[in-house]
Amino acid sequence: MGGDAGDLDVVDAVVAVDASDVVARPDVADVAQDLAGLDAAVDAGQDAVDVPDVADAVSDEGAQAPWYEQLMPEGQRLNQIVGVASHMDTTVTGDAQTEFEFDQYAAIGGMRARRGFRWSNVEPEEGVWRWEKTDGAATRAVEHNVSLVPVVYYGNDWAQTNPDVYGTLDVAKYANYAGEMAKRYCATIKDYELWNEQNITRFWHVAPDPVKYAEMVVAASNAIKAECPDARVAFGGMSSYDDVDLFNTWNFLARSLEARPDLCDYFEILALHPYTFIQFDSPEYDETDYEYAKRGQTWMTDVARDMLAAAGCSDKEIYYTELGWPSYELSKEIVAQYAVRSLLLAARDSVEGWYWYTFYDDDPADVSPVRPHENYFGLWEFPGVDDTVRTPKPAWNALMASVEVAGAGRFAADVGAIMGLPNDVYVLAFVDDEEKLVLAMWDGRNQPDVTYGVAAEGGPDTTFELELPMPPAVVSTTLHDQYGVELLSPGTGPSVQVVLTPSVQYLSLEY
In CATH terms, is domain 83-327 a member of 3.20.20.80? Predict the structure, then answer.
């Protein structure tokens, strides 16, 4: 995904689910079989059944200590990783939608944003530069405290042996464009993402070519660093499915690393697009069968990290430069739940950048002959044909609540893992620089994991009665719901009771 507005994802061609019934969903095994040309085999090296929790390796000695004695705040603050993969206007003139979007980012103190800088717009003829096509986004980002990641894409007619096929581009000419971009924006932009979803035919126009893409990364990285030595290069965000093998997650990365053993020397960031299967499954949902696996967000991230480690470059940062769920088959409230849960899990899993796709819905009247997913991913409603509608969707409100209530905190502990709570029941601790402690809590079993046809406990109305031991020094607690609305405090005591549901709750502890 992540192309221009209105593009449709190949994997969207599935049977629709009744929007009023968030329990029912297509039989994903049948859907997979019906997707012609896609191999459902899982690479043997990725055929894991269990998905170990990040914090489950607690020592015997550490396991005896209460959770509040195991807090280790590290990494970025929660509000530092959240961003949007946007369709904003990038020109100097801009438009009202773009100005409004940037104003929302500025209102919360700034955010991340990701936007494609299309090569054919900026260099329509070799050596002819039209930087007014992208200067607007670069300037507005500085003015609104937005950390902008441009995507260096796509092909260019005059730089391709076949004007209709991106994959036939001249690598040296592409690298020259990347270098010129870094030269122009080095003072304010430090991260440059190379291409978008290069592992699917939709954005390559022929079968994806990991060998050529590896060459592009090397050449473009050299050009970028020559003009901006402190710039960082991102291996372009990969789709979570692959044209060659639907369930062999990120195998394009593995093939690129094999093609160029020194490839890790040329990028600092690995970009992923961890959309769950058919953009319907929850961020926590894992399914293993005899011939395939459908991976949740954490599992997909672990697969990528394992590949990097095998190549000797486990130190690379991970960005999710696109992810999201459309409010099409899922209700807007369910999408809001998934958005916040995804962000919190990303913080736990040391993901450095999390970019929701995208800011605005597209026109709901523009119905695709297949399935209008791309029109419903926005955090804000379609602004209307006259561009006067400004309505946030629940997902935006929920994300803003997470920033307001827990955003100053750094991930400090997976309390649920320390306490031995059931799989996919989460209590995550965030501690800010002033040692304020906030617990983000939810029951993520509304779509229970499935292993060889056997579903775990849970369901759409799942709840978990949490008995939470409290630090002795706590003098008060404040409980907020997913949208930041204050709820009845559970008190202090030696322990407190909170009923967890699929909607995130935040428990703030005051000492």
Answer: yes
